[in-house]
Amino acid sequence: MDKPKVVLGVSGGIAAYKACELLRRLTESGHDVRVVPTGSALHFVGAATWSALSGHPVRTEVWSDVHEVPHVRIGQEADLVVVAPATADLLARAAHGLADDLLTNTLLTARCPVVFAPAMHTEMWEHPATRENVATLRRRGAVVIEPAVGRLTGVDTGKGRLPDPAEIFETCRRVLARGVAAPDLAGRHVVVSAGGTREPLDPVRFLGNRSSGKQGYALARTAAARGARVTLIAANTGLPDPAGVDVVRVGTAVQLREAVLKAVPEADAVVMAAAVADFRPAAYAAGKIKKKDGQEPEPIVLVRNPDILAEISADRAREGQVVVGFAAETDDVLANGRAKLQRKGCDLLVVNEVGERRTFGSEENEAVVLGADGSETPVPHGPKEALAETVWDLVASRLA
Length: 400
Ligand code: PMT
Hints:
The protein is of the alpha/beta class.
């Protein structure tokens, strides 16, 4: 089989050096990559580097090898175009359909999915001109990844950092897998919770659960690759931030509830994949609880935590908002799942079987997605990302 053809566009920002790692990941995972830098990108990383790493000649303008008509052919032949970093200038030229170098010509002739990974200073990212250009590109079907927050070129920090190349690669992989299908969550804001809450007993100990956050992160990554703006509320996860996703970190169920209630008024869909503790210790000991010689330990008194899923399902923050829950069951899986769907009042409930070494922390999952309309969608054993795609298919059809 022919290798998928990827065009890596690089525009002139300091983050251009990070595109070398993206290029490496793409070539090593079996993609045929043509690098098309802008003239200014070559101030940061030279043509020799791009050429050596990609195994192809590198051009910036349309006047070399004219007999091969590169200004049309490169875009026409591509299965995916990814521009990383995409500067404010490049986004503006792409949004306005300019074609003054090889990269912008390629963007105009490409009929495949296009991903932009912007990187620039916060002021440039927030400028109304850039906001409008990004909105235009998204409206036309491009996936524009939200920049990360962190250290910028100088001592300043803020939104505008190029996301981790490994995460941009993950987005590209997912967009390529979807092919020319339009990013059906473009213009949508989705909220996903992931991980497991920890309910502290004292400064040292907590009541927790085995959730790693992998299923929730797969949902967040997949939604971003389908064009959504994603808020990921992560409880005690040790996973890298997915590219283009706003991550809010929480610890306890009460903090998770606060973060969810803050995010839902703007959300088109909410997916609660986090494992939320139903109970928390009634009291928190300010100092480490000590064992006392000859005495039995004091029993731990628990109180109920708020049921976040039931609350947001009963009191919809927006008309038409789709609310999805997960049910983690160890026995009578489907029967318990059906009863839980009734109790929680959500639109969809993803019922998965869990155990000490089942589903938690694993790369795979298997589930049945129950709909409040009586539908049942089985998802066979496979990567957590495949289950995530099915969940978004069902959400997208309800949003439409
Ligand atoms: O993170 P991984 O290692 O990838 O594992 C994935 C997973 C097993 C954690 C995930 O697939 C899953 O099943 N998540 C839901 C875990 C859970 O809390 O299930 P539950 O059946 O106890 O709760 C039902 C639903 O109510 C869930 O959507 C939960 O987020 C929500 N809930 C629960 C309690 C509570 N107080 N408030 C809630 O909102």
